[in-house]
Amino acid sequence: MAKNKEPRPPTYAVSVVGLSGTEKEKGNCGVGKSCLCNRYVRPKADDYYTEHTSVLSTIDFGGRVVNNDHFLYWGEVSHRGDDGLECKIQIIEQTEFIDDQTFLPHRSTNLQPYTKRAAASKLQSAEKLMYICTDQLGLEQDFEQKQMPDGKLSIDGFVLCIDVSKGCNRKFDDQMKFINSLYSQIVKSKKPIVIAATKCDECVEQYLRDIQAFASNKKNLLVVETSARCSVNVELCFHALTQLMDKTRGKAKTVPYLDAYKTQRQLVATATDKFEKLIVQTVKDYHTSWKAISNKLKTHPDYDDYINLEGTRKARNTFSKHIEQLKQEHIKKRKEDYFSSLPKVLNNLLSNLEEIEKLSWMEAQNVLKSRPEFQYWFVVLEHTPWDESDHIDKVGERRIPFDILRTPEAEKVYQNHVQHLIAEKRRLEMKEKFKKTLERVHFISPGQPWEEVMCFVMEDEAYKYISEADRRDVYNRHQREIVEKAKEEFQEMLFEHAELFYDLDLNATPSCDKMSEIHSVLNEEPRYRALQKLAPDRESLLLKHIGFVYHPTKETCLSGQSCVDIKVEQILANRLVQLDHGRSNLYHNSANIDKVNLYLLGREGLPQELANEIRAQSTDDEYTLDGKIYELELRPIDINSTLLLTHFWTSAFKPHGCFCVFSSIESLNFIGDCIGRIRAELGQSRRDRYTPSLPFILILANQRDGVCKNLPILRHQGQQLANKLQCTFVDIPSGTFPRKFNESQIKQALRGVLEAVKHNFDVMSPMPSIKDLSETDLRIVMCAMCGDPFSVDLILSPFLDSHSCSAAQPGQSNTLVLDKIIGDSRRRIQITVLSYHSSIGIRKDELVHGYILVYSAKRKSSMAMLRAFLAEVQDVIPVQMVAITDSQADFFENDAIKELMTEGEHIATEISAKFTALYSLSQYHRQTEVFTPFFSEVLEKKTGIEGSFMYESTRDSNNASEDVFPQSPHGNSPAYSYYLDSEDDTEAPPPYSPIGDDVQLLPPPSTKYRIDGEGNEYPYHSTPVNIHDHERNHKVPPPVRPKPVLSKTNVKKLDPNLLKTIEAGIKSTRKARVPLAHAEDVEASDNYAEPTDTLLKSKGFSDDIYAVPDDTQNRIVKMRNSFGVLHGTHCEEENGFDRMSRGQGGRRPSKYKHRSKILFSKTKAYHRRAHSDASDEESGLAVQKKKKGRGHRGSEEDPLLSPVDPWKGGIDNPAITSDPEQDEKKMKKKKQQKPKEPKKPKQKATKPLYPPTRRNWESNYFGVPLPDLVTPERPIPVFIEKCVDFIESTGLTTEGLYRVSGNKTDQDNIQKQFDQDHSVDLMAMDVAVNAVAGALKAFFADLPDPLIPYNLHPELVEAAKIVDRMERMLVLKEIVKKFPPVNYEVFKYVITHLNRVSQQSKTTLMTADNLSICFWPTLMRPDFENKDTLSTTKLNQSVIESFIQQCQYFFYGEEAVDMSHPEGTPPSQHGAAHMPEPLVPLTLPPPLQPQQIQHQLQAEPLV
After folding, report:
1. How far is Cα 936 from Cα 933, in angstroms, rounded to an integer?
2. How many CB atoms lie within 10 A of CB 885?
3. pLDDT tens, position by position, 279-314
4. How far apart are CA 1125 and CA 18, in angstroms?
5. Taking the CA atoms of the chain, what radius of gyration do you get in angstroms?
6. Is 1296 exposed, middle or buried, given 0-12, 13-18 or 19+ CB atoms closer than 10 A?
7. Counting runs of H as helices and runs of E as strands, what totals does the chain give?
8. CA-to-CA distance for 1455 and 1446, rounded, in angstroms?
9. In this structure, are residues 1168 and 1193 in contact, taking their beta carbons and an 8 Å threshold?
């Protein structure tokens, strides 16, 4: 059974009709039939055409699309209704085509009018093609070709189109007449009809109502409001007709145009929104093309929906807008980048505010173009503006287009830049101002948090201006500076306490006791306490320093690359290689001399006369000498000639020697001066090229006039100058000669030149072998401190500038070798230049014949290191001390330099060492001759030094030797060595002694000379300290004989200061005097031996008083004494090790610290400070009474009471005792056995002596009577006010105020600055409060009379004894009223200040009791030599304490304050045990007041 075939959907043919015809009939546009058909058949926006013309050519009319018919076949549309039924609708448009030639309807097969033809229900046209658009006509092959089915159609329904829009040049009524006519024809076909109101998007409401009325009159004819352009109700129109054609379908429903339009717009809006989002998401680069993006999105539903609704053209427009937006965003971003980087560019190119502040933007652009960096920051484009050129696509191009600067935005950036520079300048100014504010706040300590300081500077203008970040930045920078400075000062302080650290052996580990000692000593230093808030850093620095001290290496040197060892290695490695190279070239380039170039030097025509004489004895300038012929080239030069120095040494003429002729004292002096300048010039030239030493020959010319009375003087002076210069002197031979020069003189002079040249070749020969180097005569060690403010090249220049300098053995990188003439023979001297820390290791372990100890006169720590090193050196080893400073003027202009140079020479004097100075600004004092006397001394003592070294090496370390201290018999070191001036050193030799204030003129021509190793003789003299010149050790004595006995009256010849101190302090302990020589026996030649000591040992102790070598018999002459009895002299043959190894009679080597009171006092001071009781500063009087006969340290609070001052000696002075360490132990053991001293006769009461002023400068303010410093308007001296204001503003929280002593240098600086300017700001001086407190006390101490008059002292003491408290207060108040008015006002001011200080005692620990202990000696200044004063010290102190406590009662009329401790009873003697201890020294036997000795010792200030 066959299956039933599915029924095919029905097909309906619909004819679309409406007004048609010529333009006259229908107007200039149609009624929209074609658009309606187009939208229904092809609804996609891209397939919709708005223009469909009816005016055709004959060819187009006859084409297959029109096919000579007046209707068009639009095609077939499949339709599914709401009920799901499908059907096909074929669309026919009835129209009338107009001939484009005649503008009349084309003729066709059907000649009926349009109304009848349009109503036809049967249509036929063979092979008629489907119509698409007007462009299809004539080009049918380019479009889809689809034929009308079967060539014929039966019309099933009609769509009657009525245009409801306004316009088209026709009347609506005319159209309705045509419609009525057409309708009447159509209705006859009895086919369904639907009226389509077209162009409703432009409708006229009246027209629409008319149509509605027309339809209602025609039996409810259906009207559908359509718009083909907006695609509204088009489908609805045809679907309604389909429902009418198919009776099975439901009744058609129509939708008003507005509702349908809204629905369509919503649909379009949704599709548009989705499409735009799709474009934004997909397209990121404005370079993307539409073709690429459409191909990419063609399958996307959102894309397809939008294309269908709006078409490709709108989609492309949307895409183009998005691309343009991307491009503009890119340009905007680039522009923003340019403008964001423009400030940076302007900061780089226009950073100078002064340059651009007044410039306009156009002028600034010109400045930009002129900058060299312009091309780096900007690019000038050929095509502008930049945003329309291809520059926007150059992503890698970061330079700014220059044309962008012409925009207003760029000008605004420039203006902002200028304002920023102005604001930044102001900000930086304020930051610097704030920094200076912080620098003025002296209480800011290293490590102090910002929060603790902030409150003190909040009112500052700069603080308010800058931001908190800037404040912290400035404060952190300030903290870094003060911390760094404090650490540097702390490190320098550690170096200044070198004696404290360098008392243990190398590689040792400091014990706990040693560390406690170190902390105890350092705790007294303000620089130690300055790092209190950075205790871990301070401890780290201390441990690092200690680690370096006991384990020193150049790698761990605290000076880093400034370590002397590293610098010396570098300099020697470079300079010695150059010397050896120059020496080698000279050696190889020098052959046997056949030609001799000579300069003839003299005055008054003598050189020319000598040249004539030589030529007369020559044949064609050839001279025969000792069988050999020499060609001589002579250059006579008169000293007056200006060619002397400029043409002396040229490349064309290099002299082998110089004949210097003289015939008078004047010409001899000129020659000596000239030779000195020549040698200085040649010495300077050796720095650039190697130059041999030029030999000089002195020739004495005969006097033709026969006047010979001056001849012996000339001969003597000439010989002396020749010895000084180490050159040959040619005398006039015996006999009478008619000419000034004879042949023997010339031959002798020429031989001298040839021998000197040969000697130069020998000396300049290539480096000796290692074997030769090992055979050195002397081993010298030069020590310098790392970090000293001078170049290491300065201390090496005396050796490296010498032509006799050569390198040492390989591996000895810090060593050089000198080949010098010392005495009568040439010696090889090995000089090792080391830092002090490296030298410590060889001090005991290696044989050293002598030390050259260098220190900087600008640095205290340098001197401290020298002292620490020297203290442990064996005293048999000669020492040369060298002070380094810039120039000789420093000694007079800088007190600190003067003090250190003076201290150095004092030490040199005490230990019989040599002392000299090197000046960094002078070439003159860098010559090797500076050390020639020292080398000579070392050579003389070489045997004894080596014997001592062997003795020490073999001696048992546990067998302590008993040291004695004989002075060196060869104390011949000049304080300074003077040489002839050179052109390079225009400074005159220093006509002064660095040790004293006296100025001594240069020595006269008769000054003694010594011959040095370079062939130069130099003058020397002793630097005078006082009138006793023979006391100094700077002269060379002739062979020494034992000193005869002197009378006691000449004891002062040894050391006036020490003898004054001895006589004043220990008269009762002396039982005998040292026999000394008579004054008349002291010869001008200083032919005596130095005494070993100036005091006698304990009973039974015998020692050598004199130990001097007898040069004639090469033995030691010793003089012994016992209690002043001279037993006689005896001689012993002692030499080398034998002498040193002898038992009781021989002298064992000691250390230099036992030879120098300075060295000894420095080392012992640490021992005393570290081992004293912690409260030693406040110990009671009774404690120190047990120490009678010993020097006391005094109160550190009041320097006026401290016998540490130089003018206060003591019997423990190491310079006047034997072995201080041994004697101290012996004295303790024998203290009970010591016989009592005879009581001194009671002295009459005298006015107490003023303590000496501590000032070393003249002052018109300090030391002036108090009334001269005040006025009625200003009753308080300005200095007191300034000090009190400073202390109360910065120091009321300082622990130990007035008790802890300040820095002495700072105290002096405060007074000096005030002397120069009374308005000086103490805040700006950056001094510690303790220094200001010390300066204030020093002011009262320097007054001619004490503030509390002497005549009131007894009354005050008696008042203090009153038992009743109120009665005692009333009496004291009456006594105060007796003060002179000036004294009263100042006393009131000071006591008020001390009362305020006592109120802060919880933090300062300075109660009224403690303050009175510190101040009463300064305010009352009693005579401590008076026993009555010593018995009333506690009463005086209690009086001042009462004034401080009851300040308001005594001076301001208030009631007395009831103190917490009872004051109703006077202080008792046993109460002294409870008193603070600063008054301890007052109970000791006072030293001699300096007024008794100062007037005699003005020329010798002691250290």
Report:
1. 5
2. 24
3. 999 999 988 999 999 898 988 999 999 988 889 999
4. 169
5. 60
6. middle
7. 52, 30
8. 9
9. yes
Three-point CA angle 314, 315, 318, nearest 5°: 85
Alpha helices by DSSP H, 94-204: 114-118, 172-186
CB atoms within 10 A of CB 1005: 12
The conformation of residue 457, written as its DSSP 8-state character, comes to S
How high is the pLDDT of residue 1332?
92
Is residue 1041 classed exposed, middle or buried when 0-12, 13-18 and 19+ CB atoms within 10 A define those classes? Answer: middle
Written as six digits, the tokens of 246 are 């198919």
User: Following DSSP, what letter does each residue of 297-365 receive, concatenated?
Assistant: HTT-HHHHHHHHHHHHHHHHHHHHHHHHHHHHHHHHHHHHHHHHHHHHHHHHHS--HHHHTT--HHHHH
What's the DSSP call for residue 923?
S
pTM above 0.85, yes or no: no
What six digits make up the tokens of 518? 């170190």
The string of DSSP codes covering 226-264 is -BTTTTBSHHHHHHHHHHHHSTTS-------HHHHHHHH
Sheet containing 1103-1110: order of strands? 1103-1110, 1115-1122, 1125-1132
Tokens of 287: 């370079």
Please check whether residue 989 is in contact with residue 976, taking contact to mean a CB–CB distance below 8 angstroms: yes
Measuring CA to CA, how many Å separate 203 from each of 44, 166, 220, 253?
Answer: 24, 7, 22, 21
Q: How far is it, in rounded angstroms, from Cα 758 to Cα 592?
A: 9
Q: Which is it for strands 657-662 and 595-602: parallel, antiparallel or unpaired?
A: parallel
Tokens of 480: 């870094």
Tell me, rounded to whole angstroms, the distance of Cα 968 from its chain centroid. 48
- For β-strands 157-163 and 152-154, DSSP reports them as unpaired
Q: Are 1232 and 1407 in contact (CB under 8 A)?
A: no
Contact at 8 Å (CB) between 124 and 40?
A: no
Handedness of CA 664, 668, 674, 678 (dihedral sign): positive
Q: Which residue has the tokens 């429903």?
A: 253
> Could you read off the pLDDT of 340-369 as tens digits, one per residue?
999 999 999 998 989 998 899 999 999 999
Give every residue of the chain whose pLDDT is below 50, as ranges. Answer: 1-2, 581-591, 642-646, 687-690, 764-773, 956-1146, 1173-1252, 1461-1503
Are residues 717 and 665 in contact, defined by beta-carbon separation less than 8 angstroms? yes
